[in-house]
Amino acid sequence: MYRFLLTRQWVILTLVALLLIPTMIRLGIWQMHRYEERSARNQLVSDALHAKPVPVEELTSAGHTVTTHDRYRTVTAKGHFDTEDEVVVRRRTNSDDEVGYHVLTPFVLTDGKVVLVNRGWIPSDGPSQTTFPKVPAPPSGQVTIQGRLMPDETTAASGIKDLKGLPDRQIMLINSEEQARRLHAEVLGGYLQQTAPEPKGDTPEQISDPGKEDAPLNYAYMIQWWLFAAGVPYGWWVLVRRERRDRAEKAAEEQAAETGEPAAV
């Protein structure tokens, strides 16, 4: 009755089905791991954003590497902006995907140490980007600022090439070690994305909160792959039943033709 399963066509189909089942299960497990990783990262970001603000010196120091746990932590700093050593970071986009600059201003703390502050985004003056753009001034005098602590940028992490020979006071990556050499100062590791006080006239345009990774999408893919894995044997059995019925009907028709009697339904 099921001897057709030994034919070349059905042997190949069965082997493919047997291969698809563990493959789809493994893909579902991979999506499960992706869901867990993304959920964990989302939780880290949420915890950091909602943690109580602390002085920046409590979380970083000169030469310190900002950890994933401390990334996005809200920190405060008291001192003054050093606009003379201000630089801009090229090829940065705002929330509308417009290309411009990030404004990076050294902030001198009361003890003389420096923390780099990303004050936000400004548009480029023109297509050439060879001259230093017009940058809105920060608050003058002694101020207290607040921002999100960020790790130093690297080419490996960001995919941005650290190009050389750029126009004066323009950089590609925000890196505290490089800026320490340029400023000849003790610069704290990482930098701040300023959130307060808000700029007058909404410029520079402050960087928005980090969005959440779409972990539920990976969860949906996980369920999808496992449903596919469960559907393979069911689909294989449906095809087997259909093939058996078709062969039975064909055999009945051939027998009826030989005996001259109508085929049984």
UniProtKB/TrEMBL annotation:
Keywords (A to Z) from UniProt: Cell membrane, Membrane, Transmembrane, Transmembrane helix
Family annotation (InterPro entries):
Surf1/Shy1, Surf1/Surf4
- List, alphabetically, the CDD domains matched: SURF1
Query: Which coarse location class applies to the principal site listed for this UniProt protein?
Result: membrane
The family line of this record is: Belongs to the SURF1 family.
| PANTHER family attached to this UniProt entry | SURFEIT LOCUS PROTEIN, SURFEIT LOCUS PROTEIN 1
Instruction: Output this protein's name.
Output: SURF1-like protein
